[in-house]
Amino acid sequence: PDFLPGMDTWSFKTSNKLKQIEKEYSQRLLKSSQTVAELQTTITSLREENSRQQLAAERQHQEAVGRFEDEKRLLIRDNDRGIKALENDAESYYNQIQALEKEIQNKELETQEQVTNSRQKWSNS
After folding, report:
1. Is 43 part of any domain?
2. What is the C-alpha separation between 119 and 125, in angstroms, rounded?
3. How many CB atoms lie within 10 A of CB 108?
4. I need a labelling partner for 86 at 20 to 30 A (CA). Which of 11, 43, 68, 79 fits?
5. Is residue 125 part of a domain?
6. How is residue 77 annotated by DSSP?
């Protein structure tokens, strides 16, 4: 009978201690749940940001490829025009050379005729 009042005190202390431990673990659980929720929110946010950045990078890549292709087409067009201009110049020079060769031949024939005429005049005189 003397130990019963002590047991009640011990039982009361133990019960209070258990309630205190339960309260602490409930607080820890709540804090852990909040931390997990915050981390999940952060992960979701980071995934969304990553997706946005990937889309932006892909869009920038496509724009760069488009600009490159445009520049390539312009260079090819300019190169083709340059080649055509050089071909036209070459043809013009070729035609000028042929015209000059004909002119030289005509001058040579003229000169030969003059020489022949001069010889005939000298031989007839």
Report:
1. yes
2. 10
3. 10
4. 68
5. no
6. H
56 token code pair = 């932006």
Q: Which residue has the tokens 């090819």?
A: 76
pLDDT tens profile 13-51: 888 899 999 999 999 999 999 999 999 999 999 999 999
Domains in the chain: how many in total?
Answer: 1
Judge whether 48 lies within some domain.
yes
pTM, two decimals, is 0.52
> Tokens at residue 85, please?
């201009």
Taking the CA of residue 49 as centre, how many other CA atoms within 13 Å lie in the half-sphere pointing to its CB? 6
Reduce the DSSP state of residue 125 to 3 states and report it: coil
Domain that holds residue 61: 1-119
Residue 7: predicted pLDDT? 62
